[in-house]
Amino acid sequence: MPVRPIICMPDPRLRLVSKPVAKVDDSVRALMDDMLETMYDAPGVGLAAIQVAEATRVVVIDTAKKDDPPAPMFFVNPEITWASTEKNVHEEGCLSIPDYYEEVERPAKVRVKFLDREGAEKEIEADGLLATCIQHEIDHLNGVLFIDHLSRLKRERAIKKFAKAARRATEDRGEGPEKA
Ligand code: GNR
Ligand code: NI
């Protein structure tokens, strides 16, 4: 089952704090492979395991440009060990918050410690889109969404928009309240 369904707002599982991976074994690698296929299919540049309803600290990212060869990256138990005081503003979107885009300010550069696909400890320094993306994905592992970084007014507008869409979907299935 390679491409898995992506869960969307207002699914409460997006607010879970994901559990650390104890050992990078074949089942973790199988999850990462499914996540990568799901991300390429969407398409997106990053995906956290909770977006496919697995509350474990696993992230896949590929920020390669369209005409360059694929460059998948795998992060298990990623942790930010340093963040620049210099900030960067980037327009963000999220596969779990469809068709909603806003500018978010985050540290421009970060260092990230993680386990790779083989379970070896690595540390990288990221800037540009990769820095933005890895911070967005680590937020997911902590139940944080990019709308949480927006002004309260913008965040509440986004939440309302998705609550309304979800209500309409249940009504369309005949599960909603009786209409007068
Ligand atoms: O595909 C994605 N694009 C993106 C653009 C700017 C900042 C972050 C991202 S991540 C997003 C995919 C996603 O929802 N990952 O969790
Ligand atoms: Ni996201």
Structural commentary:
The protein has three helices and seven strands. With 180 residues, the protein is α+β, with helices and mostly antiparallel strands. The chain starts with 25 loop residues before the first helix and ends in an 8-residue tail after the last helix. The model has no long low-confidence stretch (mean pLDDT 95). The chain binds ligand GNR and nickel (II) ion. Ligand GNR binds next to strand 1, strand 4 and helix 2. Nickel (II) ion binds next to helix 2.
Briefly characterize the structure.
By secondary structure, the protein is α+β, with helices and mostly antiparallel strands. The chain has helices at 26-41, 128-141, 152-172, and strands at residues 46-48, 58-61, 73-83, 87-94, 97-107, 110-115, 121-126.
Q: Which structural traits does this protein have?
A:
180 residues; alpha+beta; Peptide Deformylase; five-stranded antiparallel sheet; 28% helix; globular; binds ligand GNR; binds nickel (II) ion
List the helices and strands and how they pair.
Elements: H1 26-41, E1 46-48, E2 58-61, E3 73-83, E4 87-94, E5 97-107, E6 110-115, E7 121-126, H2 128-141, H3 152-172
Antiparallel strand pairs: 1-2, 2-3, 3-6, 4-5, 6-7
The structure holds ligand GNR and nickel (II) ion.
Ligand GNR binds at residues 44-48, 51, 90, 92-96, 132-133, 136-137, 140.
Structural class: alpha+beta
- N/C terminus separation: 43 Å
Determine Rg (CA atoms, Å). 17 Å
Number of structural units classed as domains: 1
Count of helical regions: 3
Low-confidence segments, given as residue ranges, are none
Task: Quickly give the CATH architecture.
Answer: Alpha-Beta Complex
CATH level 1 name: Alpha Beta
Q: State the helical fraction.
A: 25-40%
Number of strands: 7
- Major sheet description: 5 strands, antiparallel
Order of SSEs, N→C?
A: HEEEEEEEHH
Strand line-up across the major sheet: 1-2-3-6-7
Bound molecules: ligand GNR, nickel (II) ion
Tell me the strand percentage band: 25-35%
CATH superfamily placement: Peptide deformylase
Named CATH topology: Peptide Deformylase
Mean pLDDT over all positions? 95
Q: What is the molecular shape?
A: globular
